[in-house]
Amino acid sequence: MTPAGTDTDAPVVVDARGLRCPLPVVRAAAAARDRPGGTVLTVLATDPAAALDLPAWARMRGHALLDVREPGPGRAAWEVDVRLAAPPSP
């Protein structure tokens, strides 16, 4: 997991390449845990199940799915962008 900066407009890259289900979701959840609402996570995953699992995780947590990009020319992994929801107020 590599923070791209403290600006919530700069994505936080979560590298889950080479990991099988459910680890891409586990890594995304860990990266999201202490981040403010509005932060964008870009999850890189080679497991095709991540293209379904990460959007489902985002929906269940109230996060916004921004994009799912398939591997292809210039891209060796799935790329899933999620904008984190603000945590619930106490």
From TrEMBL:
Domain UPF0033: 14-38
InterPro entries on file: TusA-like, TusA-like_sf
GO molecular function ontology, one term from the record: transferase activity
Keywords: Transferase
EC numbers: 2.8.1.-
Pfam families named in the record: TusA (PF01206)
SUPFAM superfamilies: SirA-like
Alphabetized PROSITE patterns for the sequence: UPF0033 (PS01148)
The family this protein is said to belong to: Belongs to the sulfur carrier protein TusA family.
Name the UniProt record assigns to this protein: tRNA 2-thiouridine synthesizing protein A
